[in-house]
C-alpha cells in the first residue's frame, strides 16, 4: 500500500512538472510570438479587404516582415484573452512593431489617413484632376463645379473613400468659410454678395503671390469698382481665352480687345464668374482691404508691384518696370 502511494506521488509529481514545463514553454512561445520586434525596418502598410481571413492577413504580416513565422499570428489570435477582430481598412504598422501592436492597430480599426492637397489659385478643372488622380479612392468625378466653389486646403481620406465624398467636404468648407468671412467684412464695400467677393478674390489670387500685397491689390480693384472703372486685369483675359479654347502663349494688346465675358478691359464691373478658387488670405483681403487711393499697379520685376494713384504715376512706374527688365536681360 505504501509502495503504491509512493508511486502515485511520483507520477503526480512527474505530471505536475511536465504540465508546468508545458505551461511555461507555452507562455514563452506565446510571449515570443506576440512581443518580438518585427524585422520591418520601415513602416509597412497592411490592407484588410472585405472577406480577408486569417490566412490572408497572416501572409501579409509575414511578407511585410512584421512576423518571421506566419503561425505566430494564429498562436497570438487563439491564445489571446481578448477577442481579435481585424476591421476592413488600411493600416500603417510602425517599424519593428510587435505582432501584438500590429493586431491592436487592426482591431481598433483606425485606418491610415491619406491626404490630398489643393493649392490656392487652381481652377476647378485642375482641382478635379488632382482629386481624380489621388490614389486609393473610388469613383471618378465627371462634372466640373463652378469656379470659386472649391476651398483650397489639405483634405484627409481613408482607403476606399469615394471622391464624391471628398468633393462634398471641399464644397461645404468653401460655403462655411465664405459665410464666416462675409459676416466680418468691412462696411460699404462695392460688392454685394459672397459670390461677388469670391469672384474678386480669385482675381486678387492671380494678380499677386505676395502676402503683404493682397490687401493693397484688393483696394485697387475695389476703388475701381466704386468709380465704375474697368478692372483691367490680365488674368481675367487669359482665363476667358482659355475658356474659348485659345489660350495665348503670351498676352498681347490684341487679346485685350477680344470680346468675352471675362475681359475686364472691355467690360465694367466683375467678370461672369471667378477665374480660380481663391484661398482664405485673398478672400480676407477683399472683405477687409487696405485703405488706399490707389487705382493702378504694375509689376516691379522683383516679385512685387508699384502702386499709383494717378495715370501719370502709373505710366512712370511702367517705364521703371521696363527699364528694370531691360537692365536685367
Overview of this protein structure:
- The protein is built from eleven helices and eight strands.
- It is mainly alpha-helical and 329 residues long.
- The chain has three domains: 33-112, Endolytic murein transglycosylase (Dna Ligase, domain 1, 2-Layer Sandwich), CATH 3.30.1490.480; 114-174, no CATH class; 189-327, no CATH class.
- A two-stranded antiparallel sheet has the order 1-2. Strands 3-5 form a two-stranded antiparallel sheet.
- β7 and β8 (305-308) form a beta hairpin.
- The chain starts with a helix and ends with a helix.
- The model has no long low-confidence stretch (mean pLDDT 88).
Sequence-ordered SSE layout with sheet pairings:
Elements: H1 2-35, E1 44-48, H2 54-63, H3 71-79, E2 89-93, H4 99-108, E3 114-117, H5 124-133, E4 137-138, E5 154-157, E6 161-162, H6 163-183, H7 194-207, H8 214-226, H9 234-243, H10 280-287, E7 296-299, E8 305-308, H11 311-327
Parallel strand pairs: 4-6
Antiparallel strand pairs: 1-2, 3-5, 7-8
Helix pairs in contact: 6-10, 7-8, 7-10, 8-10
Amino acid at each position: 500500500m505504501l509502495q503504491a502511494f509512493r508511486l502515485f506521488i511520483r507520477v503526480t509529481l512527474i505530471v505536475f512538472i511536465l504540465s508546468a514545463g508545458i505551461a511555461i514553454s507555452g507562455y514563452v512561445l506565446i510571449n515570443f510570438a506576440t512581443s518580438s520586434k518585427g524585422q520591418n525596418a520601415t513602416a509597412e502598410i497592411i490592407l484588410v479587404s472585405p472577406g480577408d481571413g486569417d490566412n490572408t492577413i497572416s501572409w501579409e504580416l509575414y511578407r511585410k516582415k512584421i512576423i518571421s513565422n506566419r503561425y505566430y499570428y494564429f498562436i497570438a489570435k487563439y491564445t489571446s484573452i481578448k477577442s481579435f477582430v481585424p476591421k476592413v481598412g488600411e493600416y500603417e504598422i510602425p517599424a519593428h512593431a510587435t505582432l501584438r501592436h500590429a493586431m491592436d492597430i487592426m482591431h481598433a480599426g483606425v485606418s491610415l489617413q491619406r491626404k490630398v492637397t489643393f493649392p490656392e489659385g487652381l481652377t476647378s478643372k485642375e482641382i478635379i484632376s488632382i482629386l481624380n488622380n489621388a490614389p486609393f479612392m473610388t469613383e471618378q468625378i465627371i462634372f466640373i463645379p463652378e469656379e470659386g466653389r472649391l476651398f483650397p486646403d489639405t483634405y484627409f481620406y481613408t482607403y476606399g473613400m469615394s471622391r464624391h465624398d471628398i468633393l462634398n467636404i471641399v464644397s461645404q468648407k468653401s460655403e462655411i468659410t465664405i459665410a464666416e468671412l462675409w459676416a466680418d467684412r468691412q462696411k460699404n464695400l462695392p460688392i454685394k454678395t459672397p459670390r461677388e467677393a469670391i469672384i474678386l478674390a480669385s482675381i486678387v489670387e492671380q494678380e499677386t503671390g505676395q502676402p503683404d500685397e493682397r490687401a493693397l491689390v484688393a483696394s485697387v480693384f475695389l476703388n475701381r469698382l466704386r468709380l465704375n472703372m474697368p478692372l483691367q486685369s490680365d488674368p481675367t483675359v487669359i482665363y476667358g481665352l482659355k475658356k474659348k479654347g485659345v489660350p495665348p502663349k503670351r498676352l498681347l494688346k490684341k487679346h485685350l480687345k477680344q470680346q468675352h465675358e471675362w475681359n475686364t478691359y472691355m467690360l465694367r464691373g466683375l467678370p461672369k464668374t471667378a477665374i480660380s478658387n481663391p484661398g482664405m488670405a485673398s478672400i480676407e483681403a477683399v472683405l477687409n482691404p487696405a485703405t488706399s487711393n490707389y487705382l493702378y499697379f504694375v509689376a516691379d520685376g522683383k516679385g512685387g508691384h508699384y502702386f499709383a494713384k494717378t495715370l501719370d504715376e502709373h505710366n512712370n512706374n511702367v517705364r521703371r518696370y521696363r527699364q528694370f527688365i531691360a537692365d536685367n536681360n
